[in-house]
Specification:
The protein has 10 helices and 13 strands. It is α+β, with helices and mostly antiparallel strands and about 350 residues long. The relative contact order is 0.19. A hairpin with a 5-residue loop joins strand 10 and strand 11. The chain has one domain: Ribosomal Protein S5, domain 2, CATH 3.30.230. The strands form 3 sheets. Strands 1, 4, 5, 6, 7, 8 and 13 form a 7-stranded mixed sheet that branches. A 4-stranded antiparallel sheet has the order 10-11-9-12. Strands 2-3 form a two-stranded antiparallel ribbon.
Length: about 350
């Protein structure tokens, strides 16, 4: 009888503070980036492997067939088997994943899924021996995650992660992300209220968006700006300067969308409600002197970030003023990175009738 092995991992999304936008070669970034790791917005992936003649893949998304996802998963695993993990060539992999948030809507679902997939695969090949405490193994996971989705390499680490070589960050690399611990304690308390303006799939994929930077008239200037922001952000994080942190974060978000809007092939992903929320956040911050700031990924949904000490005042205001502008909110916080789940824990999440919470 062929022996099967099952593992389950949960990996969170992350939100970039200094964004990477533009890539080259095998998923290498054009500029370094730094992100906060989240906790509630996460993907759980269970993998059962059985010896087989050649790589075979079966994939379910939340217990259901999702052919467009299955094709991508099979392609990525085939690439890993060919160039990185020859041990995959003799396995049948049954994969089931669950998102706690809407996929393909600009909340880095590829980051959480690809990192959870890489964690499970490396764990399978190490006979269930992968530990988040094994720095060498986690660098390997980060590297594989990057090959699946660039920003996925940051998701496995706790709190703050850096991806891309930059002189200000010792050990930083284009090949994989690193955890960055030189951070004031205030940032460990940060909340991220993700306001879902639209859960529809975004009009342009992240891969297509990155491709817009090839030949972009402002590409060189953008990469210079990102390098400077990374330099400043190191000192800001160390000092706990939440105002400077928020100012750079908002500038980076608007720069990202500006680059999409003024590229040769132009995209506008912001919705009217997105702009209304941004205006309300800025007015509230100015009037009440509360350090609440926003950022966005490549979509219309707002990440509203603030320290824990402001939770009560921000929550009351969000419900009173912002609620008409979004569908639902995911109440998230800075998290501790990826974690391994027991079979029982995974089974409670991977129910066929499960849906993301609102």
């Amino acid at each position: 009888m062929k022996k099967s092995t099952s593992v389950a991992w949960q990996s969170p999304s992350n939100i970039a503070i200094v964004k990477y936008w533009g890539k080259h070669g095998k998923q290498y970034p054009r500029n370094a980036s730094i992100s906060l790791t989240l906790s509630a917005a996460a993907t759980t992936t269970m993998i059962t492997s059985t010896p087989a003649d050649g790589l075979r893949v079966s994939y379910l998304y939340q217990g259901r067939d999702k052919p467009e996802f299955a094709d991508r998963v099979e392609r990525i695993l085939g690439q890993w088997a060919e160039s990185e993990l020859p041990g995959l060539r003799d396995l049948h992999l049954e994969i089931n994943s669950y998102n706690s948030f809407p996929h393909s809507s600009g909340i880095a679902s590829s980051a959480s899924f690809m990192s959870s997939l890489a964690l499970g695969i490396v764990d399978i090949l190490s006979a269930g021996g992968l530990s988040p405490e094994d720095a060498v193994a986690m660098r390997r996971v980060s590297h594989l995650s990057r090959l699946g989705s660039g920003s996925a390499c940051r998701s496995i680490y706790p709190s703050v992660a850096v991806w891309g070589e930059h002189a200000a960050y010792d050990g930083s690399s284009d090949d994989h992300a690193i955890a960055w611990a030189d951070v004031h304690a205030i940032f460990e308390t940060y909340h991220d209220d993700i306001l879902i303006v639209s859960s529809a799939e975004k009009a342009v994929s992240s891969s297509a968006g990155h491709a817009l930077m090839e030949g972009h008239p402002y590409a060189a200037t953008r990469y210079e700006q990102a390098a400077v922001h990374m330099q400043w952000m190191r000192d800001i994080l160390r000092a706990g300067d939440i105002e400077a942190f928020g100012e750079i974060m908002e500038n980076e978000a608007l720069t990202l969308h500006g680059l999409m809007m003024n590229s040769p092939t132009s995209y506008i992903l912001l919705e009217p409600a997105t702009l209304s929320i941004i205006s309300e956040i800025r007015a509230f911050r100015k009037e009440k002197q509360i350090p609440v700031y926003f950022t966005l990924d490549a979509g219309p949904n707002i990440h509203m970030l603030y320290p824990h000490s402001e939770e009560a005042r921000v929550s009351d205001w969000r419900e009173e003023v912002l609620r008409p502008h979004y569908q639902f909110a995911i109440r998230d916080r800075v998290g501790r990175g990826a974690k391994k789940l027991s079979a029982h824990e995974a089974s409670q999440i991977l129910r066929p009738d499960a849906d993301f919470a609102n």
